Amino acid sequence: MDRGRRRLAIVGLLAALAVLAGCSGPAPETEVVCDECVDAVSAVAERTNRSVAVGESATHVYLNRSGDPWVEGRVALDGSGVEALRTNETLLNLVATELTNADEARYEDGYSRPAFDRRGISVAMDGGTLVVGYRVPEVTERTVGGTVFLDRFYRQDGEGRADETDFDEPIAIETDRLVVHGPEGTEPLVEPPGAATRGGRVVWTDDSISTRTYLVFGSPGTPAALATVVTTLDVLAWAGPPAAWGTAFAWVVLVPTLALCLNYTGRVERSGGWSPRSDRWFQALVLAPLGVGVVWGGLESLGSLIALAVVVAVVVVGGSYVPWESLARSEDATDEPSDDGRADGTERDQGQTTADGEYPRVYYEDTATTIGRLAPDIVATPRARERARVAAAAVVVTALLTLVLAAAHTASYAGWVVNIAALTTPAAFTVLGFAVADRARTRLQWTATAAALTGVWLLAFGRLVDVGAHDGSVVWLVIGWGVVASYVGSLLFYAGLWASTR
Q1: Which of 68, 57, 64 is nearest to 179 (CA)?
Q2: Residues 441, 500: contact at Cβ < 8 Å?
Q3: pLDDT tens-digit profile of 408-424?
Q4: Helix H or strand E segment including 421
Q5: DSSP string of 343-400?
Q6: Coil vs helix vs strand at 489
Q7: How far, rounded to the nearest angstrom, does the alpha carbon of residue 429 sit from its chain's CA centroid?
Q8: In angstroms, rounded to a whole number, what is the distance separating the alpha carbons of residues 137 and 421?
Q9: pLDDT of residue 340 exceeding 50
Q10: Could you tell me if 397 and 454 are in contact, meaning their C-beta atoms sit under 8 angstroms apart?
Q11: Which of 25, 58, 180, 414 is most deeply packed, by most CB within 10 A?
Q12: How many Å from the N-terminal Cα to the C-terminal Cα in the chain?
């Protein structure tokens, strides 16, 4: 009985030493490379009352150009129980069972999880070293220029396991070292953060892997720029589609707002200026928050479908009245009679009449109107070319910034770009308010319009690179920002218009 208690005390002491040495399992809900490769031995030794001390450990990942990589965990053991592990196949089977149970464990119950889907787990002894081996399906892929690419450690793309809970948490390393061996005849083209490249290997000695880790291997002499191309294409592939969706939905609000703003050039010319007292759109915009508050308060207090129906009716009628009333004002301004009392703007020749006694109708038009009537392309082409130049410049600048964001997959510049893009759209509305007051500022008008639209895309793409595509939160953020930017930008537009026309 005393001997059994001594053995339990020894095992407990060994377990405590293992904890102090950093060999204990990581926090729950954490993905682990070679999960339980170390802890499984301690668990089996404790259950079978055998004295086993865990020494140095390492996990080796052998990548192939094609096929499934091989993972091998090697754990040095010491103590009187090591001989039993070498000779007793049942003990090794118990260790394999611990590894299998780790694969099937529920993270909600407080277990860590393997970082890979393990296939064909095997456990054996190589002298005093425990060797755990298994294959991992579909981890590497061949990409541009014959390079071998691995993105399993890159957590921001949102393509992890289906039961993922925290993409921002790095993958843990249970062993003392993690060594990734490239395919035969290759060398690493990227040195990930927190790792070192040694020969054809990438080595980690920390206890975790950065969430922004790409691995790219190529033949000796392959330029490192090729790895940048590979990682850039991958970032574009996972961040581009959700950024495009968010931008498209935000544009549903922004484009009509910008079109309405651009229409103010004609209104300013017809009226000779702009006054907030005669602009129904401006008045509706300013009163909108008050209306929303009243509607919200009414719904909260009444809580009735009748109240909702009344609100909808008011919104529809009011929304219809504002544009039609503004349109009527515009038509009244354009249909004012000329100085001689004729609405069509023609003049009478006082010296000649026709056979029936009527004055002949003579039309006078300026040179620009004549040119526009005879050869409209001559007038339209310069303006179309101006718009095309602005659009082309906006596309080029936006594409370059997008490539810079994608190439810097560690999000080195994403935060700065997001902050600048968030200010670009409302600032562009202010500039547009100044530009529409004069038709000669056509280039400035379209530049501001392009900046307002491209700012939304850079905000969406930069935000995705910065925080990742874990869920749809970024898309909804961009859509909400489009709505807010349209309202705030409209107020700034009128401020710029007022400053330019007062």
Answers
A1: 57
A2: no
A3: 888 888 889 999 999 99
A4: helix 414-435
A5: TT--EE-TT---TTSPPPEE----HHHHHHHH-HHHHHHHHHHHHHHHHHHHHHHHHH
A6: helix
A7: 24
A8: 41
A9: no
A10: yes
A11: 180
A12: 100
